[in-house]
Design a protein that fits this description.
Helices cover about 10% and strands about 60% of the residues. With about 210 residues, it is mostly beta strands.
């Protein structure tokens, strides 16, 4: 997480210097906050998407003709649930995932300062899943695993991302979709749990961006 933070600070500093050189009206720092819906796509157990939150910073700079370049860092809390059994009761057990993302997006300006289409790569670093203490011994439906058995997930993922941003010069709404290429459950395959785990995350984001 610390490395991501320092990398982002360096990126913002570099972009600020560039902004002072030229295109002064087209280089702006953005503060963003919003919500996300996280889906874990897997056949190992039953999952449901849940809602989390986002907060971050970005730098939008003029790149070439109708293209902008957008550097961004986003911190998120993602949530999803897994169907579990507690005795004879079936209930959804919620998992939380804290993450940090750094992205580099190309932005095509359909309407200057009002509408743009964005796409590009991002990398995400995250910790382990967190599950409620009172449900960590629930049995995951269709398996012999406990809810706490699947928390040690992969800490790195790569997401191709596509989105659209609309609004006004200083206030815009961004909607994007990210799909994780790496196997998020890959770490579990080294724990001799008797299951071949595979799961890919998908994240739908809706963020309000305030440009300074």
């Amino acid at each position: 997480m610390k490395r991501l933070y320092f990398a982002f600070v360096f990126t913002l500093t570099s972009m600020t210097v560039f902004a002072q050189y030229d295109y002064r009206d087209s280089n702006r720092i953005g503060i963003s906050f919003g919500v996300n819906q996280f889906t874990l796509n897997t056949n190992n157990f039953q999952t449901k998407p849940e809602t989390g939150w986002n907060a971050g910073l970005s730098m939008r700079g003029n790149f070439y003709n109708n293209w902008d370049m957008v550097y961004a860092m986003q911190f998120s809390e993602n949530n999803f649930s897994v169907t579990t059994n507690s005795g004879f009761i079936t209930e959804d057990t919620n998992y939380k995932l804290a993450s940090a993302q750094i992205s580099l997006m190309l932005s095509y300006k359909i309407v200057e300062n009002h509408l743009s289409l964005e796409f590009g790569p991002l990398v995400q670093v995250n910790g382990k899943l967190k599950v409620d203490k009172d449900k960590e011994n629930n049995i995951i439906t269709g398996t012999t695993l406990l809810a706490k058995d699947i928390v040690d997930i992969s800490t790195f993922n790569f997401y191709p991302t596509i989105g659209i941003t609309s609004g006004f010069r200083h206030v815009r709404l961004n909607i994007s979709y990210q799909y994780g290429i790496n196997n998020m459950l890959g770490n579990l395959n080294s724990q001799n749990l008797g299951v071949n785990f595979k799961g890919n995350p998908g994240i739908l984001n809706g963020n309000l961006i305030l440009y300074l």
